[in-house]
Amino acid sequence: MEEKQPVQLIVQNCPTEEDEIDLWQLWETIKKNRKTIYKVTAAVFLLALVYIFIKTPLYQAKTVMQIGYIGDKPIEKANIVAQKIKTVFYVDSPLQKKIDKEAFIESVNPVKKVDKLIDITAYGISNEKAVNKINEVLKYVRKDEKLKIEHFKQDIQAEIDKTQRDIDKLKIVDIKKIDDQINLVKTHDIKKIDDQINLLKTQDIKKIDDKINLIKTVDIKKIDDQINLLKTQDIKKIDDKINLIKTVDIKKIDDQINLVNTQNLAQINDKITLYQKEIIPNIEKKIQITQKQIEKFEKNIQNLQKSIQKAKDKAFIALTLVQVSNYQNMIYSRQLKINDLHLQKEKILKETIPNLQRQKEKILKETIPNLQRQKEKILKETIPNLQRQKEKILKETIPNLQRQKEKILKETIPNLQRQKEKILKETIPNLQRQKEKILKIEIPKLQDSIGSLRYKLTEAYISPSKFVGDIQTFDKPAKPKKKLILVVALVTGLILGVFLVFFLEFLKSEPKKETE
Predict the structure, then answer these.
(1) Which single residue of 74, 304, 393, 497 has CA 20 to 30 Å from 411?
(2) 34 band by pLDDT with thresholds 50, 70 and 90
(3) What are the respective helix, strand and coil percentages of the chain, to the nearest 5?
(4) What sign has the CA pseudo-torsion 162, 164, 167, 168?
(5) Is residue 124 within 8 Å of 58, Cβ to Cβ?
(6) DSSP state letter for 365
(7) Is the dihedral of CA 249, 254, 257, 261 positive or negative?
(8) C-alpha–C-alpha distance, residues 381 and 371, integer Å
(9) Strands 462-463 and 117-124
(10) So what's the pLDDT on residue 135?
C-alpha cells in the first residue's frame, strides 16, 4: 500500500470586510434605507415645530448702563456693581426662572477697557416686561448709590457752611478787630508813649535828682547819727544793764531764797505742828466723844428699837445717824489739810529753792555774757556795717542813680520815640494792608471756594447711574429662534436617521457572520 502524503493547505492573508470601508456600499445602504432616514428626520423636525409652538416667546431688551460718578470717579467699580446685580437678581442661578417667571436678567457684564459701563441683557414675555426688569436694575443701583451721594452732599454742604462762616467771621470779626486795633493804636498807644516821655522828663528824672539829694542830706546824716548814738548811748546802756543784773537781780534772787528758807518753811512747819498738836487731837477727842455718843446712841437705839416695836417712832434714830456722819466728815477734812501742808513743804524744798538757784546761775552764766557779746557785736559789726553802708551809698547807689538818669535821657526816651514812629510808619499801614488783603483776596477766595463747592452739588458733578441711550428692544421674539431650531432639527434628524440605518444594518450583518 502506498502511504498517503499529507496535504498542505496554503492560506493566503486576504483582507476581511472589517478591515476595509467600502464607501460605495455605505452609499448603497443609505440609498436603500432612505425612507427610514426621511421618517426620522421628519419626526425630529415635527418635534422641533411642536417645541416652537409650545415654547413661550421671550423678547430681548438690551442696554448699556453708566455707573454713577462723583467728579471724575465712579461711585463704585463696575465689576463690583455687576456682581451685586447678579447676586440680587439671581443671574446664572437655577432659582432665577422660578422667581422671575415673566422677565429675568440674562447677563450683566462690565464693558472691557471702560470702568463706568455695564452691558445688561434681559428677557421677558413682552418687550415691556423686559424693559421694566432693566429699569428695576437701574432703580436698585440708584438706591444703593443714594446714601453715598447724600453723604457726599452733606459733607460738601457742611464745607460750604464752614466757608460761609469763615467769610462772616472775616467781615464781622476780623475786619472790625483790625479797625479797633488801628483806632487803639492812634488814640491809646501813641498817647501812652507821649505820656511816658513827658512823665520821664517831668517826674522820673526829677525824682532821681531828689533821691540823690535826699541820700546826701538825710540818709548819710542818719547813719552818722546812728553810729554816734551807738557809741554814746547804747553801749553805756548795756553796761548799766550788766551792773544792774549783778547788783540788783542776783541779790534779789538770794533774798528770795533766804526768805523761802527762813519764813515759808517756818510757817509750813508751824502749820504742821498746829495740825499735829491741836487740831488732830481735838478731832480725835471729838471722834472719841462721838464714838461714846455713838455707843450711847447704839444703846439708845437698842432701847429705841425695843420701844419702836411698841411705839414705831423713827425721827430720833434718823437724827442720831446725821450727827455721826457730820463728825466723820470733820475728821476727813482735817486729814486732807495735813496732807496738803506736807505737799506744800516738799514743793518748797524740792522746786522753789532749786529754781531760784538755777535762775541765779543763768544770770551769771548766760545773761551777763550775752550782754557782753552784744556790746562786742555793736563795736565790731554794727558800727562797721553802718560805715560800709555809708560808703556803698557814696560809691554805688548815687552813681547808679546818675547812670539811671543818663540811661533814661539817652536810651529810654529815644526808644519810645522810635516806637512811636514805628507804629505810625509800620504797624498802622500793616493793619490797613491786612484789612485790604482780607477784603480783596481772602474773602473773594473763600467765595470762589463756595462756588466750586456748590458746583460739586450740581448734576454735572454728581450723577447717579443711568442708561446710555434708550433701551434697545426688538419687534420679534428673541427666543425661541425658530429658523435656527428648525435647521438644527433637520440636520439632527438626518444624522440620527443615518446613524439608525447603519445601526440596523449592523444588527442584520451579525448573524450572517456567525453562520459563515
Answers:
(1) 393
(2) confident
(3) 80, 5, 15
(4) negative
(5) yes
(6) I
(7) negative
(8) 15
(9) unpaired
(10) 92
